[in-house]
Amino acid sequence: MQSKIKYTSSYERISPTAWMTAHHRTYTDIPYAHDIFDIVEELRLAQGETVMADEFKNPEIAPQIEASHKLVNKLLLDSGISQVFEIAAGLSPRGLQVTSDPIFTYIEIDLHKIAAQKRNIVARITSKQPGGLNQNLRIETGNALNLASLKKATTTLDHSKPIAIINEGLLRYLAMEEKVIVAGNVRELLKQFGGLWITPDISLKTLVHAENILTKGGMDRMHAATGVNIEHNCFDSIGHAKDFFEKLGFSIEIHSLMEVCDELVSPNRLGQSREQVKNLIDKGAVFVMRLAA
What we know:
Layout: H1 8-11, H2 16-25, H3 33-46, H4 62-79, E1 83-87, H5 94-98, E2 105-110, H6 112-126, E3 137-141, H7 147-153, E4 163-166, H8 176-193, E5 195-199, H9 205-214, H10 218-226, H11 230-233, H12 238-247, E6 250-256, H13 266-270, H14 274-281, E7 285-291
Parallel strand pairs: 1-2, 1-4, 2-3, 4-5
Antiparallel strand pairs: 5-7, 6-7
Helix pairs in contact: 2-3, 2-4, 3-6
């Protein structure tokens, strides 16, 4: 099945969405978040891009980004799996963070330009560290919708060990038929390796609507900037999402973002109350998915 990649034109550069997420992380204590953002800003301005307008910053939703990142990390560590494959990794600091422990082998994959930018960013960060680049972190070029590129990126992994497949922030930019393709590709990889799929990309229409109100039209601005109607791509409910993935051959374990609420530092930095944070993240979830028996 062929699919037109609706997000390619915006995702193949440091787009407002990638920049915005990197900016959100600067309100957290996530390792490397500030380093990545500072280099991103430098690269953007060197390429002749203008200073990003305040309307794209939307720091109010930083707790959601922080909770998602921290819960995924917790679930990854709890799994005991040491081979990780992050799809559409973008500007995520997770690979740098996780591979500080040499037990992990970590492969990131993304489209050509963003992968090249990420290699540059990682090389600059690690050049300042004793020993330089973590040898257990690799950044490959590939497409979440192209199974051949995903298989190529994972050829050096140990097929006798399970993998943890992660994606964070991808699925809300894909139509339902494209989500089916990504899920099918993940299923094929899990058939080869065993393991699990961890994703917080269970965006709900009600949550995106709430984000839009909180950011005073931030989602509408993203729609205008990227041409992607995020709310249209979202699930109606957690039950809808669970049914969607179960029909595609997965068993599902559901974790609420509230599990890491007490670990968040961004609410304090933004002056947000616990009730405000709860309203923002209590509908968010991370799915841990395995192949159904």
